[in-house]
C-alpha cells in the first residue's frame, strides 16, 4: 500500500512538472516546435521557421536589400540570408506576412495581438499601467523570457532566468532598407496590431536589459515571430 501511494505521489508530481511544457506542434512545412504554457496562454517556445502560408502558398523569400524595402507584400528571410541561422533563430518576417489572410501561423495558432503580449507581461509581473506604456517597461519580465547563459546572448545577458520557459533568443532583425543587425544582442517580435498606416506594434528584449520594449516600427522591418494558441 505504501509503495502504491508513493507511486501515485510520483505521478502527481511528474504531472505538475510537465503540465506547462512538452506539447509539440508543427507548421505546414513540417517544422516542429516546443511549446510552453505561461499563465493561461500556450506559446511557442521557439521562433517561427515556416516558408509557406497556412494554405500552402509560398511566402516570398527576398534576399536583395533594394527588393526587401519596396513591396508592401509578405516576405521572409534568414538572418544575413544564411540558412545556417534558421535552426537556432528561426526566420525573419515583415509585418505584411504577419497580416496576410492566408495565415502565417500554424493551424490552431496565431500571431499574438498587442493585448496578448500585455497579458503575458502582466502574468510575469507588470502592472497594467506599465504594460500600456511604450519603450522599456517593467523590471525583470524580460529576464524571465530570455534563455539563460551567453551561448547565444552577448554578455552580460542581464537578468536572464527563463523561468517562464519562453526561451527567447537574440535573432536580430532586418530594417526597412534591407540591412541586418543586432543578432546576439536583441530579439524583436511582431504583434498582429498595426499602430499607424505603415507601422505596427512589436516587443524587444536586449542583452543588457531585463525589461521589455513595447514600440512600433515600419511594417517592412523583418522581425522574429512567436505564435500563441487559439
Contiguous runs where pLDDT drops below 50 for at least 5 residues: 6-18
* Count of alpha/pi helices: 7
Our measurement of the CA-to-CA distance between the termini, rounded to an integer number of angstroms, reads: 43 Å
What class do helices, strands and sheet pairing give?
alpha+beta
Task: Tell me, briefly, the overall form.
Answer: globular
Number of domains: 1
SSE succession: HEEEEHEHEHEHHEHEEEEEE
- Total number of strands: 14
Mean pLDDT: 92
* Percent in strands: 25-35%
Lateral arrangement of strands in the main beta sheet: 8-13-12-11
Alpha carbon gyration radius: 18 Å
Instruction: Tell me roughly what share of residues is in helical segments.
Output: 10-25%
Largest beta-sheet details: 4 strands, antiparallel
Task: Give the key terms.
four-stranded antiparallel beta sheet, 7 helices, single chain, 230 residues
Your description of this structure?
The chain has helices spanning 2-18, 65-68, 86-89, 95-98, 114-123, 128-132, 141-145; strands at 21-26, 32-38, 41-44, 60-61, 75-77, 92-93, 109-110, 135-137, 171-174, 180-183, 186-196, 199-206, 212-218, 228-229. It is of the alpha+beta class and 230 residues long. The chain has one domain (21-229). It is globular and about 40 Å long. It starts with a helix and ends with a strand. The model is unreliable at 6-18 (pLDDT under 50).
Amino acid at each position: 500500500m505504501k509503495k502504491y501511494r508513493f507511486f501515485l505521489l510520483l505521478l502527481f508530481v511528474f504531472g505538475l512538472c510537465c503540465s506547462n511544457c512538452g506539447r509539440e506542434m508543427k507548421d505546414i512545412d513540417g517544422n516542429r516546435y516546443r511549446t510552453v504554457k505561461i499563465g493561461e496562454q500556450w506559446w511557442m517556445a521557439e521562433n517561427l521557421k515556416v516558408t509557406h502560408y497556412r494554405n500552402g502558398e509560398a511566402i516570398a523569400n527576398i534576399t536583395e536589400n533594394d527588393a526587401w524595402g519596396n513591396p508592401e507584400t509578405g516576405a521572409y528571410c534568414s538572418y544575413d540570408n544564411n540558412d545556417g541561422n534558421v535552426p537556432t533563430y528561426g526566420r525573419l518576417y515583415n509585418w505584411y506576412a504577419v497580416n496576410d489572410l492566408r495565415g502565417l501561423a500554424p493551424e490552431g495558432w496565431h500571431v499574438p495581438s498587442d493585448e496578448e503580449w500585455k497579458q503575458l507581461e502582466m502574468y510575469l509581473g507588470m502592472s497594467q499601467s506599465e504594460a500600456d506604456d511604450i519603450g522599456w517597461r517593467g523590471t525583470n519580465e524580460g529576464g524571465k523570457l530570455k534563455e539563460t547563459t551567453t551561448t547565444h546572448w552577448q554578455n552580460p545577458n542581464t537578468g536572464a532566468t527563463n523561468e517562464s520557459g519562453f526561451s527567447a533568443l537574440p535573432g536580430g532583425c532586418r530594417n526597412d532598407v534591407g540591412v541586418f543587425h543586432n543578432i546576439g544582442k536583441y530579439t524583436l517580435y511582431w504583434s498582429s496590431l498595426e499602430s499607424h498606416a505603415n507601422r505596427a506594434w512589436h516587443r524587444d528584449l536586449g542583452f543588457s536589459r531585463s525589461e521589455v520594449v513595447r514600440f512600433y516600427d515600419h511594417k517592412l522591418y523583418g522581425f522574429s515571430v512567436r505564435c500563441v494558441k487559439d
